[in-house]
Write a structure and sequence with these properties.
single chain; about 170 residues; alpha+beta; Nuclear Transport Factor 2, Chain: A; six-stranded mixed β-sheet; 6 strands
Length: about 170
């Protein structure tokens, strides 16, 4: 009798495992890269609604911005969405961004990505000179190291947490 129960349970387990659709890791990795690039483009266009559409809107949403001397942690959807609504990109021109993807790991409907974000942009700064002021264009180049946790919701990848580290550039 025990053998029959064991055989039935084994068959149910194997059938359940065999019926699970296989994850196409390469396809999902490309979809995640596309989401990351699209989120950056929406950010550069200052399209807050579009940026926010890439994030899971729940109490577990987090964003960590860290540098050598500063840490900012935003917890929950209200804080994260407020952060993006208060971002001011005015004064920034000619932004260029590339990404060096280091690792993307996909497991079923969850993923983790780590990448280097390479930025170049210009700002206009007013500089004092003897007797007057002068506008000077300053080009800024920097790197950010990013980690992102993602979840697949209704066949779309969404960001569930995002950490950015800005070393001294």
């Amino acid at each position: 009798m025990k053998k029959i129960y064991f055989i039935i349970l084994s068959c149910v387990f194997l059938l359940n495992y065999a019926c699970k659709p296989k994850v196409d890791i390469e396809k999902e990795t490309e979809a995640i890269k596309a989401l990351i690039h699209s989120e950056t483009q929406a950010f550069l266009l200052n399209d807050t609604a579009k940026v926010l559409s890439y994030y899971i809107q729940d109490d577990y949403q987090t964003r960590l911005n860290a540098s050598c001397d500063t840490i900012e942690l935003y917890k929950g959807w209200k804080e994260v969405s407020t952060f993006f609504k208060n971002v001011n990109l005015s004064g920034m021109s000619n932004p260029k961004n590339t990404k060096d993807f280091i690792q993307i790991k996909v497991i079923d409907d969850a993923a983790w990505a780590i990448y280097k974000d390479n930025w170049t942009y210009s700002i206009v700064k007013t500089v004092s000179v003897p007797g007057s002021t002068k506008d000077t264009i300053i080009t800024i180049t920097g790197n950010l190291f990013c980690t992102m946790n993602l979840e697949k919701k209704v066949n779309e990848w969404k960001i569930s947490s995002f950490s950015i580290y800005s070393p001294n550039n």
